[in-house]
Amino acid sequence: MYKQTCTNILSLSPVEVKKWLNSFDSVITDCDGVLWVYGNLISGSSDTINYLKKMGKSIYFCTNNSTKTRKELLVKGIELGFNITEDGIISTAHATAAYLKNRNFNKRVYVIGSEGIGKELDAVGIEHSGIGPDVMQGTLSTFMSQHLTLESNIGAVVVGFDEHFSFPKMTKAASYLSDPNCLFIATNTDERFPMPEMVVPGSGSFVNAIRTCAERKPTVIGKPNPAICQTLIKQNKIKPARTLMIGDRANTDILLGYNCGFQTLLVGSGIHNMTDVDQWKNSKDPEDKKLIPDVYLPKLGDLLPLILNSMTHGSY
Ligand SMILES: [Mg+2]
């Protein structure tokens, strides 16, 4: 319905809104930039999600943010008023650990990332190192000759969001990756965080730095890789054509929807907005066309009044 037209839902009649709401049973929503920004609720988002759940839609949170475990995301979601369970959370830290576990990985992991990844690896019994500060000591030559030590038995380098990203970490990661048998895994490639007044580098910035010096391409676990939703589809928990993907970033969220055959809703409360969509509509690059969502709203909270209004036009 409204396939890749970027139709503004605010322009639909109550009957059309009702028809659209009846076209999906499951909702997969991004978190940062859709539900909250830097820990602060985006107004109306929890009421809207909880209402969709009350209507019988199954709700999944799907975040590329690798700094938190599923349990920590659950606590945060509940604190902000969302009616969710741990089963309903898909996170890259968890998915990365599951990816390694499913391959019967039995070596150590060098992590450029945060505690969230470490805790999820711990939970599946995979040993790791690298999390936390690793600052440059001395000059390049003293660092190389006296301070640089490489561990043996590293079988994978995982790169996610790391606020302690440094020259020594780059050197170690690229050195481990010079062994072609060492896996190179990126939790996600989001370029930056949705912040209104400054630029906060996202995991993709670190991934690309390692990718450049390692001269290798990573396996990307998070959105837009459809693998992140394959379990839900395989276990028949969602039907792609009757699933709505909600996101604020087109090259991860909307592209994931495109890749999985979901319906898509772009909200303008984070990274991308209507101006970006207009550019993709006018672009000659076929890749840009994949970023155009089916429907659009300035923010998710705008949906609740439309749902309530549409209810006066028959039951659901
Ligand atoms: Mg987002």
UniProtKB/TrEMBL annotation:
Entry cofactors: Mg(2+)
Keywords, ordered alphabetically: Hydrolase, Magnesium, Metal-binding
CC terms in the record's Gene Ontology section: cytoplasm
Matching InterPro entries: HAD-like_sf, HAD-SF_hydro_IIA, HAD_sf, PGP_euk
Catalytic residues, chain numbering: 30 (nucleophile), 32 (proton donor)
Binding site for substrate: 223
Residues annotated for Mg(2+) binding in this entry: 30, 32, 248
Cofactor binding, per record: Divalent metal ions. Mg(2+) is the most effective.
Keyword Metal-binding recorded: yes
SUPFAM superfamilies (alphabetical): HAD-like (SSF56784)
Pfam family, one: Hydrolase_like
PANTHER family membership: 4-NITROPHENYLPHOSPHATASE-RELATED, FI11325P-RELATED
Name by which UniProt lists this protein: Glycerol-3-phosphate phosphatase
Protein's organism: Drosophila hydei (Fruit fly)
Gene name tied to this protein: LOC111603313
